[in-house]
Amino acid sequence: MAKTIIAAAASVLAVVAILGYFMVSGASVQAVTAGNKVSVYYTGSFANGTVFDSNIGRGALNFTVGAGQMISGFDSAVVGMRLNQTKSVTLSPAEAYGEPNPALVVQVPLSRFGNNSSAIKIGEIITASSKSGQPVQGRVTSISSDNATIDFNPPLAGKTLKFEIKVVGIQKQ
After folding, report:
1. Which of 5, 131, 144, 155 is least surrounded, with the fewest CB atoms within 10 Å of its CB?
2. 71-78: long-range contacts, CB 8 A cutoff, minimum separation 24
3. Taking 70 as the threshold, does the pLDDT of residue 105 lie above it?
4. For residue 130, what pLDDT band results from cuts at 50, 70 and 90?
5. What angle do CA 77, 82, 83 make, to 5 degrees?
6. What is the pLDDT of residue 29?
7. Alpha-carbon separation of residue 173 from 4, 5, 34, 39 (angstroms)
């Protein structure tokens, strides 16, 4: 009987020590807040279920919540999540890449491509420089005898996106 009491007391002390660790350190019970650095695994898909991106089987995605590093809906979705929690979210275009902007669809004279103008194909990705000098990519959507139409909108603009997100790391800042 004494061994049973000692074993029970040892178990109670172990539970108290573990609870004390969690209460003092906030380990594992911490919820994600703005400013935290988080690590997540995700799978992104369209409304029809077609997967467009995933980091499963690769490294975790690391970012600072609320720092503008992610699309707004993804950023907001992780707030309140806990370590090892998984969440499914559906983001409207406004929460993701926005609606397509007609001003980002431009006509470019084929002469701007020099001797390569005959090699330009529909669907080809073209890299150009923005007004600030940053590289931007656009997709050739049509070609006429004189011009190529290039769409510089993000490829996922105008799309409703679904994400399955799992938080695998939370670091307070």
Report:
1. 131
2. 71/95, 71/96, 71/97, 72/96, 73/161, 74/42, 74/163, 74/165, 77/163, 77/165, 78/32, 78/38, 78/40, 78/165, 78/167
3. yes
4. confident
5. 120
6. 59
7. 45, 44, 9, 14
User: Does the structure show a pLDDT above 70 at 61?
Assistant: yes
What is the distance between the alpha carbons of residues 39 and 164, in angstroms, rounded to a whole number?
A: 14
